[in-house]
TrEMBL record:
<dbReference type="Pfam" id="PF00005">
    <property type="entry name" value="ABC_tran"/>
</dbReference>
<protein>
    <submittedName>
        <fullName>ATP-binding cassette domain-containing protein</fullName>
    </submittedName>
</protein>
<keyword id="KW-0813">Transport</keyword>
<dbReference type="InterPro" id="IPR050093">
    <property type="entry name" value="ABC_SmlMolc_Importer"/>
</dbReference>
<keyword id="KW-0472">Membrane</keyword>
<comment type="similarity">
    <text>Belongs to the ABC transporter superfamily.</text>
</comment>
<dbReference type="GO" id="GO:0016887">
    <property type="term" value="F:ATP hydrolysis activity"/>
</dbReference>
<keyword id="KW-1003">Cell membrane</keyword>
<dbReference type="InterPro" id="IPR017871">
    <property type="entry name" value="ABC_transporter-like_CS"/>
</dbReference>
<keyword id="KW-1278">Translocase</keyword>
<keyword id="KW-0067">ATP-binding</keyword>
<dbReference type="GO" id="GO:0005524">
    <property type="term" value="F:ATP binding"/>
</dbReference>
<feature type="domain" description="ABC transporter">
    <location>
        <begin position="31"/>
        <end position="241"/>
    </location>
</feature>
<keyword id="KW-0547">Nucleotide-binding</keyword>
<dbReference type="InterPro" id="IPR003439">
    <property type="entry name" value="ABC_transporter-like_ATP-bd"/>
</dbReference>
<dbReference type="InterPro" id="IPR027417">
    <property type="entry name" value="P-loop_NTPase"/>
</dbReference>
<dbReference type="InterPro" id="IPR003593">
    <property type="entry name" value="AAA+_ATPase"/>
</dbReference>
Length: 241
């Protein structure tokens, strides 16, 4: 008797066939992390991360301080090397890629800019080397306009407000044109009014540019306002909530 091959199954949904998995059957580009295993030196039980993030959607990762949220982002960015598991973007294996070749941008709470450079020079760091000057100026101007900062290109980063700095960092992300955006407490240093405005900008840019945005935040209101998909990191494992 010839055995029929089993239908491909979704290992995140465990026993479901791909066609029945609400994530796999969506058909849109997906960042997929499976059993990504890592332990810091001296850590007895390793983290084992499994999650998905879709394009045009913010995926939130919450958890207590020290639960491993930044460790997850460092693994996705390629700053740490896992001992097992996989990271795929639209079925492309990202693990062999060094950080600079990963299709990933990272935005932190603060200190994302070079303070001694102008806003425009900071944004320009997102451009490929060798971009002709006129083309670079056009793209920088467009990116600054898209984040609501027309006309501040020549201002030194050190003179910008916290919200303006995060907008400049997002403009640089626009020029990097990487499909995965990792946000590590990006609104924490902002006052309430500014945080709502920058948060809204992240929401709009994620949809407009089809980013797979992964947001690490302690703040339930940021998660509620942005996340289409939520995970909680508990005892080294990500639980969908
Ligand atoms: N380089 C390292 N060597 C050893 N242990 C580390 C290292 N980096 C982080 N850790 C430990 O790993 C655990 C997870 O740290 P991580 O920064 O990922 O947590 P987190 O959830 O992002 O915390 P927070 O919300 O406070 O930023 C912590 O116990 C931390 O002390």
């Amino acid at each position: 008797m010839t055995r029929r091959p089993l239908p491909p199954s979704c290992s995140l949904a465990r026993s479901w066939p791909l066609s029945a998995c609400p994530d796999c059957s969506k058909g849109s580009p997906m960042l997929r992390v499976e059993n990504l295993t890592f332990a810091h030196p001296g850590q007895a039980t390793p983290y084992v991360f499994s999650m998905v993030a879709h394009d045009g959607e913010v995926t939130a990762v919450s958890g207590a301080s020290g639960s491993g949220k930044s460790t997850l982002l460092d693994l996705l960015a390629g700053f740490l090397t896992p001992s097992g598991g996989s990271i795929e973007l639209d079925h492309r294996d990202l693990l062999p890629l060094p950080p600079e070749a990963r299709p990933v941008s990272l935005l932190l709470q603060s200190e994302s800019l070079f303070e001694h450079l102008s806003a425009a020079r900071n944004v320009a760091l997102g451009l490929p080397q060798g971009t002709p000057r006129a083309e670079a100026q056009r793209q920088i101007g467009e990116a600054l306009a898209e984040v609501g900062l027309e006309g501040i290109g020549e201002q030194l980063a050190s003179t910008l407000s916290g919200g303006q700095k995060q907008r400049v960092a997002l403009a640089r992300t626009l020029l990097r044109a990487r499909p995965v955006l990792l946000l590590d407490e990006p609104f924490s240093a902002l006052d309430d009014e500014t945080r709502v405005a920058v948060r809204e900008l992240v929401r709009v840019l994620t949809i407009r540019h089809s980013w797979h945005t992964i947001l690490v935040s302690h703040h339930a209101d940021d998660v509620e306002a942005l996340a289409g998909r939520k995970y909680l990191l508990v005892e080294g494992l990500l639980e969908a909530v």
